[in-house]
């Protein structure tokens, strides 16, 4: 039965999410059960593309990414794929009428990661939009479930949340991006002489994104609100820890939130969920 194939594909996306990100998996578990599968499908798709450009160093990454792009286009056009990640993703794209332009923008940013090593303000904004903001917008299509007016209202906040997450990732992953992949995402920043002033300027921009994102979270449909809030709190905790460290430290190690702290954050959000307040 085709329904069995659909279910196997969805399960692959769920397993992919759980293996790659326990934090996002925890956040997805606080979404209404009707929303969990589609968000797994989006995350699985994004994760596979990201893996190609970030970790497949012993392979022809440009060829693999182009093949993945072609396979995605075919899956979306045909309404089926033998790649279970792409099959589950196309099911969700079609069910929620996700704008194909978001997918194209995402792939453009992935292509940047193949060759681009430094960014000016315009390229940085374009990369953030394609790599992060559009992912938030894909999820927002699911959360709004056809309510276009609600989608347009929440769109700026969803973009801010995606941007905040990505920029925190950039700070967290400076060691790998700069030293191993030779990438510098932040415009005008020289990590060979990274100063407290440079770090503070980046952090002020991220803080603004978090503020804008929180205002939108309060307006999300109840089915989505607490799961998104948990993801927000995870990243806000990581951001606060990064803010507290010396600039040199993020060049030497990947700043992390211990599992016990994640559990504490999650417990607080669960209590708020039960009380119905943020």
Secondary structure elements and pairings:
Blueprint: H1 2-20, H2 22-29, H3 33-55, H4 61-78, H5 84-96, H6 100-115, H7 121-144, H8 148-172, H9 174-180, H10 196-217, H11 222-243, H12 247-252, H13 259-275
Counting DSSP H or I runs of 4 or more residues, the number of helices is 13
DSSP E strands, number:
0
Strand content: under 5%
Radius of gyration: 18 Å
The CATH architecture designation is Orthogonal Bundle
Give a brief description.
The chain contains 13 helices and no strands.
List keywords for this structure.
278 residues, 79% helix, Farnesyl Diphosphate Synthase
Written description of the protein model:
This protein has a single domain (2-275), classed as Farnesyl Diphosphate Synthase, CATH 1.10.600.10. The protein has helices at 2-20, 22-29, 33-55, 61-78, 84-96, 100-115, 121-144, 148-172, 174-180, 196-217, 222-243, 247-252, 259-275. The chain is an all-alpha fold and 278 residues long.
